[in-house]
Structure to design on (377 residues):
């Protein structure tokens, strides 16, 4: 498909013919600053709808996908969500590549009472629980807890925190500060950077000069983490560097440089280390099947973010198969009743009080070694 700039793209991309019976919507950042996340999400969603229809659809009804590209712009995400509900009359939505876009979409979903499965990380998306809103990625609070547990196991308790001022980075910063003390971690430095900053050397020098500092954690996604990784090496810092789950993809290694990123740790999903999983790991067959299908269809490596879309679609398709009807309220109830569904990110069990459905064990600590991912635990 010919790529069109995010600000111009406003066409519904249909995965099947116009005679489809069930309409679902998607809004992702296929272009723009978060395209490294949104592009594999879009490819995955299209691929899974095509595969579903090739098998006969849902109870004999074909599924029609209407997909919009918001370019990571929350205002466009809200506009497209309104269009999906009012004009396209979809029965469910997936997407929201970034936390900002997800927050904009969920406001529409809740008002219209159309189920929405978010692909973004902020805990605010599902806490407090909103009746029609679910999500597939781990929360930023969970990422902080997983990282801090690994740090403490290594004897690293005095930590410098550097965070992007975008929605993702700001949210994770708040969550890390909130759980640090209870995790046995002392935040001894707290720096920030803007989404367009091209050099974080001053902040890293401030950290290097902080007495007692033992490690650095960056809460951010996009270009910033790669810049920090390069700056970390350029000024000769030897402090262990941790990144967020927002950069858990091969694209980050390529952007930062394999040698530069050597030794960086972050919380990620089983998808990045599928071949390294034990034979009895329930995620292994799911991860390897998605990896094979995506890479054959897209001609590119899988990413964590495509995995989030895979899981959202897997949850939605499973719910459509179980629901009493394809009406939004029935689909919402079926999604909330999801139990023991194995995805690339973890095993999901939603409930009326939990619209994430994952626990901390679904996260894996990964380390970059020799240009690839090593499973730490």
């Amino acid at each position: 498909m010919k790529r069109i700039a995010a600000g111009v793209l406003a066409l519904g991309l249909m995965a099947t013919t116009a005679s489809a019976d069930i309409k679902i919507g998607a809004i992702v950042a296929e272009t723009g600053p978060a395209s490294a996340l949104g592009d594999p999400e879009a490819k995955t969603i299209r691929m899974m709808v095509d595969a579903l229809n090739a098998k006969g659809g849902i109870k004999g009804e074909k599924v029609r996908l209407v997909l919009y590209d918001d370019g990571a712009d929350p205002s466009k995400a809200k506009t497209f969500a309104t269009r999906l509900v009012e004009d396209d009359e979809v029965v469910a939505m997936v997407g929201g590549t970034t936390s900002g876009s997800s927050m904009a979409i969920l406001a529409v979903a809740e008002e219209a009472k159309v189920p929405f499965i978010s692909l973004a990380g902020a805990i605010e998306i599902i806490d407090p629980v909103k009746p029609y809103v679910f999500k597939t990625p781990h929360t930023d609070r969970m990422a902080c807890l997983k990282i801090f547990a690994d740090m403490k196991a290594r004897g690293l308790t005095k930590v410098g925190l550097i965070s992007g001022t975008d929605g993702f980075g700001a949210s994770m910063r708040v969550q890390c500060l909130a759980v640090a003390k209870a995790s046995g971690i002392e935040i001894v430095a707290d720096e920030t950077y803007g989404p367009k900053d091209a050099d974080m050397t001053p902040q890293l020098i401030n950290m290097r000069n902080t007495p007692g500092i033992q490690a650095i954690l960056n809460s951010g996604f996009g270009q910033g983490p790669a810049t920090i990784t390069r700056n970390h090496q350029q000024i000769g810092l030897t402090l262990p560097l941790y990144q967020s789950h927002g950069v858990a993809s091969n694209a980050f290694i390529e952007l930062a440089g394999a040698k530069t990123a050597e030794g960086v740790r972050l919380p990620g999903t089983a998808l990045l280390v599928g071949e390294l999983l034990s034979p009895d790991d329930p995620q292994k067959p799911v991860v390897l099947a998605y990896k094979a299908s995506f890479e054959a269809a897209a001609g590119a490596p899988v990413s964590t973010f495509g995995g989030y879309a895979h899981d959202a679609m897997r949850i939605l398709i499973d719910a459509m198969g179980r629901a009493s009807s394809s009406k939004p309220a029935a689909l919402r109830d079926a999604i909330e009743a999801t139990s023991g569904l194995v995805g690339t990110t973890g095993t999901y069990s939603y409930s009326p009080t939990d619209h994430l459905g994952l626990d901390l064990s679904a996260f894996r600590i990964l380390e970059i070694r020799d240009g690839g991912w090593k499973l730490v635990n």
